[in-house]
Amino acid sequence: MRELQKIAPYLYEIPKTGAMRVPGRIYASAELLETQKSDEAVQQVRNVAQLPGIVDYALAMPDFHWGYGFPIGGVAAFDLDEGVLSPGGVGYDINCGVRLVRTDLQKKDVLPKLRELVRELFRTIPAGVGSEGAVKAPRGDDARQLVTQGAKWAVYHGYGTPDDLDHIEDGGLFPGADPDAASDRAFSRGMPQVGTLGSGNHFLEIQAVDEIYRRDVADRFGLEPGTICFSVHSGSRGFGYQVCEDSLKSMMKASRDYGVALPDRQLCCAPFRSPEAQRYLSAMACAANYAWVNRQVMTALTRRVFARHFGMTEESLHARLIYDVCHNIAKVEEHGGRKVCVHRKGATRAFGPGHPLLPAAYRDLGQPTFIPGDMGRASFLLIGREGSMRETFGSTCHGAGRAHSRGAMKRMTQGRDLFRELEEERGVIVMAHGRDSVAEEMPEAYKDASLVVDVMERAGVTDKVARLRPLGCIKG
Amino acid sequence: MSWELIDHTGDLGVVARSATLEELFADCARAMFSILADAPAPAPAGTETFPVAGAEPADELRDFLSELLYRFSAEHRMYVAFRPAAGAVAADWEPYDEVRHPLRTELKAVTWHQLEAVREGPGWRGRVIFDV
What's the rounded Cα separation, in Å, for the pair A245 and A227? Predict the structure, then answer.
């Protein structure tokens, strides 16, 4: 990484060379850069910079790491007339995202009943490989309505309240969804999985607010030290995976047909206004809406468990959704006075104060963004600042970022009682369907999320609002 | 075993070395199902045959694995044995059963990233990265 040039205290530039159309820019601290064990992720930033119509820079957030095609943590904006749309810039798990819900409960109320609470959530929320069965699989017109209506479909079916919709990015509805653009395979793979966590790094976590950094903002969100929250991290399950799979095949052909030179086939793409790109956008919208339904259903199920467990009504629990963000998506947005298609793959939208797309209740604050850390340390609630609109196409990081591979983690944790370690050394009760998924997701698999969010704060992109410590976690 | 699992930061992959292209397909399929689930006591209920044309070996390998992954995910078919033959791979399957087939790791997709199916000496070498 010798060619990286430090151009600001937390910003490094990859100079434009060879086929690059724009420079690359990486947000990082020297400490975080040291955790990049190889050059592959930096090369992936260079590759993205070669795509037609890219605007200003190919960006990487401080949690970036080696993905396929785009790096995880990558952000790139493309001109609508000269630029492209790339399914690889979104990823297989379309609209994978995370939401944070606060409650009126305090840590001291929850700790004595924590184990039973985690157990009850583990029984209620289907998780694990190929998990199914949270709700009866929607079929026919109902399935088509699900993917066109998004989170509103879930609320209509009794999962959550209309107030939730005001606290989801874009109201939980990606416009332009066309069920005919998604294959029968996407429907048959995805519909039985509505309301399920899945596997990998997805989770449902019970957390307590541990530290407040912006009292003025935290008050507005109803957060104080000790406030119990829960977060849900999942995406579009088999529906989204299949949409991406189908579209990559058609985009391979489109790249050849339109003469787009690809440094990596996983970057296959088509001109934004082409029929191929517009069809993908319509299918991607279906998957984005599916993901919002998925998180909405799990949120409603979790509220029911909390209320039952603590002998409260859902109303008295005041389990209010603070915000739901996507971190694998492509959206048409206005930046610098022009409309562009912003790809965020492992990156989160973080619009600054006053942006018209923010809900009225938060518009003066900026967009809330939730950054999950790892199972043992901390997660962070952030708020978008003006700098994000100037510097990162309104984007920030999405998590801690991987430091060790899944295979390395399994080798490193052999012979250890991970569940006991997490409980006795970290104070976190974890229930999971497989030891492997816990081994792969142990805290040391990740960079320290606090280092990541500090970079974005010092770069003027997002402010920290609150830190949350995990108490209980369910995983696949 | 002529295949091994390889690390990729957030994902998993397989590298296989096999005598023929059909065997390479079978080895990569065995590797993929070893990631997905266990099948300690297979009792096949049916067999499907997948052609191996060899015109574009790497893409065909990816498509073959992707097809198996779809059938596993959506049709709940657990593939328990792969038998290479000339120009094809026969795959034995049984209905997926959560007790008989303890699940291990979910794979979202078979990617094109670093995809390879090339001749190496007298045989073939393949590499596939799965999205986890």
Answer: 41
For strands A429-432 and A462-475, give the pairing.
parallel
Per the rule left: phi > 0, alpha: psi between -120 and 50, beta: everything else, B84 is: beta
Q: How many A/B residue pairs have CB atoms within 8 Å?
A: 96
Report field, pTM of the whole predicted structure over 0.95 = yes
Best residue in B60, B106, B132 for a mutation probing chain A (most A CBs within 10 Å): B106
Looking at residue B94, its pLDDT comes to 97
Q: Give pLDDT tens digits for A354-378.
A: 999 999 999 999 999 999 999 999 9
Radius of gyration of chain B (CA): 14
Smallest Cβ distance to B7: which of A201, A266, A407?
A: A407
Supply φ then ψ for residue A413, to 5 degrees: -105, 5
Question: For A442-455, what is each residue's pLDDT tens digit?
Answer: 999 999 999 999 99
Domains (ranges, CATH) in chain A? Answer: 5-475 (3.90.1860.10)
Q: Read off the tokens for A392.
A: 């990162």
- Domains of chain B are 3-131 (3.55.10.10)
Query: ∠A12-A16-A20 over CA atoms, to 5°?
Result: 120
Q: Where are the alpha helices (DSSP H) in A69-204?
A: 107-110, 114-124, 140-149, 151-156, 162-165, 184-190
pLDDT bucket at B1, cuts 50 / 70 / 90: low
Residues of A with Cβ-Cβ distance to B13 under 8 angstroms: none
If one counts every other C-beta atom within 10 angstroms of the C-beta of residue A163, the result is 11
Those residues with Cβ within 8 angstroms of residue B65's Cβ, 6 or more apart along the chain or in another chain? B28, B29, B32, B110, B128
Active site residue A398: yes
Nearest CA in chain A to B71: A189
The chain-wide mean pLDDT, for chain B, equals 94
**CB–CB of A195/A126 below 8 Å?**
yes
pLDDT tens digits along A141-173: 999 999 999 999 999 999 999 999 999 999 999
